[in-house]
What does this fold into?
Amino acid sequence: MTQVATIVTQRELAAERAHRFSTDWRRWLQLGLAAIWVFDGLLQYQTFMFTKGFAQMFIGVHGGGNPGWVSDSIHWAWTIVETNPLLYNAGFATLQLALGLAIAWRRSLKAALVVSIIWSLLVWWFAEDLGGLLSGGANALSGAPGAVLLYAVLAVLLWPTPHEGDRLFVAARPIGTIAAKIVWLVLWLGLAALNLLPANLTPNAVHDTVAGMGDGQPAWVTALVDGFANLTAHHGAAYSIAGAIIMALVGLGMLLPARWTRITVIAALIVSAFIWVVGQALGAVVGGQSTDVNSGPLLALIALAYWPSTPNTHETPTEKPA
Amino acid sequence: MIGPTWLAAILGIIMIAAAISAIARVIIAARTHTATDYEVDGHNVLMGIAMAGMLIPGLLIVTAGASTVAWIVVWVIVTVWFAISVIRDAVRHPGDRFTGHHLPHLVMSGAMVYMLAAPGMGDSSMSGSMPGMSAMGAGSSLPLPTLDYAFVIFMIGYAVLVIDRLPKIAIVGSGDVAVFGHLGSAAGTRILAPRGAALTNIVMAITMGYMLTMMFV
It folds into this structure.
């Protein structure tokens, strides 16, 4: 009888300890970020990335249109990577894979998020040309403000903090509700403003951004991208302005009363999905020359961090070493 | 198989090690009368050998022609086996949205069929077409890129989830069953080295994700 009671107690204790590692909404989003980093790491291991063509395509071509000190620094990075692309790319790929795995492992979560922020900013500068923000032609469809910058934003918004039940959504926990809403506003109003840059108001601005993105991708993706490109040909200004209005509404939606937050987030998810599928061809990963999944999934993850959530009193974001 | 030869060789060796560890689990479990998931262990043995063969054509495990066809037959059988397991789990535990832990292994088996059947993947004769690189694999003839994409996302998602649940797996002691929350008949039964079993699954999933990603070319 005593033995049975002991076994039952042990099982209950095990169940309780296991429950400590249940997954709350923020943890799901962290795992989403981890998965994207792992995917980036795997893409970085593709054959092309180990050639000099990688340095040329992803670093060497950048810099144009930027201030001299920016383009000089990008050129400097290119000359370094080009000397030994195999070695450098092996490091890049392994680091990104390790970042994903480390975010997924609870004990290393915080360290991984810190490193991911540093790495994201370096890549944003040297390989993403600061998202094209300084060169005048960036827009949401082309991946502005730079997909990798969004990794850093997510790392901050998903930073593990003690539970605070009064926070409306996950993104507010580490930086507070007001700061989180400012991040949202800057992101979406910034994307809207980019659409209104002169370069994005030319008759073929939208067409030229997406045309060809779908080449070599799954047939249904190619059809959607090509269809959108044809639709927007010669009507670039109208579509850019419409896109700016939609993104501005998404941004301003976060200022509405809390009951509108879900609708705002859903709208952001729809816009993110549209950008990712029609504008970015699912990251154009088929073809062996893509280093990441582009900004669509990151925008969606950020939006989900603003989804109004019911507090989970059992959450344990990080495992305490025994 | 495409990708740098040295990387494929490293992953191939890791796959062989994973297969050996799965064999060791079966032997140790039988000798010590400890529980283990024989289905998953057997699956990992086969997968480790087959993937090593694809990664290192020189091993002559998966080569062109009859050998590839034989492996496809093997993996179709394994896929059907796990499909039956998933259905059996669903019938026994209605309402369980993940239908136990056999689902990932079903998907992995399906991915093996896909990789072997895709043009060039099992064909070692294409090896050496590029100095310093393995053969160009599926190339532009990738038959079902959306399915390939879906497989990659699944493998990464599965690996990430298992890593996240490693502490829980260690506590519950039931391998990757704990990943999907439903213990069923495995509740209270500690399997041999649960974290080791989970790590094998993680390594398998990431390596398969890598191979599927290399097919994007």
